[in-house]
Amino acid sequence: MLIAPPPPGPDPLLSITGAAFGYDEASPPVLDSVSLVLRPGERLLLLGANGTGKSTLLHGISGRLRPREGRRVAGKFLQLLLWEQAQRDDLEEEESPLDFFVRVSGGGTNEESALSALGDLGIDRFAARRSCGCLSSGERTMMALGALGLVPKHLLLLDEPTAFLGAVAIAKVAEVLAAWPGAVVFCSGSRALCEALQPTRVARVHGGTLHLHDRPPVEADWATVAVDRQRQAEKRAREEVEAHSGEGARQGAGVACDPPTATSRPRLAAE
Fold this sequence. Notes:
This protein is of the alpha/beta class. The protein is 36% helix and 19% strand.
């Protein structure tokens, strides 16, 4: 599947300085003291355990989430695209994949080209003419990702693009994204996708901020994320035990009280 190059863009594409990002003004920000400069053609991999703020950062980079503090400055005429799992579910149920591709291209893709592109993604000519409602979750993800090639941008932001996909589908997505001519910032648990995109930098999202490394990812980066996830799982397990223990204590206190009847008064546990 061929992807047309984006028009010439600014350099740097975008810069963020001392920014804090969050959703609820009444709560502390999810991320603080974030500084980042993105340049044409680079590949930045975001690593971090679930819930550490990777999606929040992508929303901040895209401009959907304005910084509470600090600055976000986009280069002149910057064109960017944020892809997240929600887009997989934004497809019109009655629209066919073929019609979707032609529509997204703005008329720049004819039927034969669209069918060829869908075929590259594993959606044959028969499935391409059926409604999107007949597609599996994996096929919907593949189609939404495949549409990226129809609208090239200077900067592509990807939030777990291979979720719900099997190994064969991941390989196809990796092949398409590896050919992307613009800059890419992505978070993904897929090592295969990471190897295909060949990140030039890695950023670990941890402790409420961003830790940048001007090098490709190394094995220690993945090991650190695995440790973070293990600690996170242990913390959740402790919280669940504590919650159940508290519930048990409350129920135990209730058992100590005899229920009131017509011939007896309520008895306090201390009696």
